[in-house]
Amino acid sequence: MRFKILLIIFATIFLNAEFNIDNLPKYSIEYNPKSNPNIELEKALKVAKQKNKNILLVVGGNWCRWCGTFDNFLDDHPKVAKKFYNSFEVVRVYFGKNMTKETKEFLMQLPPIKGTPHFYILNSNAKLLKSVDTSFLERGYGYNRKKVIKWIDENKNLSIANKKRIKGEKNEKNI
Q: Which domain range does residue 72 map to?
């Protein structure tokens, strides 16, 4: 009986624990203009394979108003942030002035960026599954919580077998 009570208490504490962004790798939370996205992606692929998750490339920069607004949105909605980071292995890719040669070459392999932040979903073998203009997630001067949650739920288990074809997207592009 004591074991069951302890188990219930532990499960309650564990399941209700606040999400801590400080425990995420730097590649998930920083737009670093000096980083090499190929190296960051390789690190993320190892984790994604272990955790059976897709990669979410978030392309943007600290200069980008909407990127900052999305980060603030996640800060203000910790349950959504937890879902976001637990559903994908997130890799931030800097886009803007002073991009490295490696970053330019990396991004040239992907469909065009229509605005920032821009999402690319890759499977754990680095196959492109989806390119996403995030403007539909916006509401006024922020983001719509229900739309973001719905988008996460609809895309976290995306695979080549169940993906919807996107107009202009190249199927199974390997980066």
A: 20-155
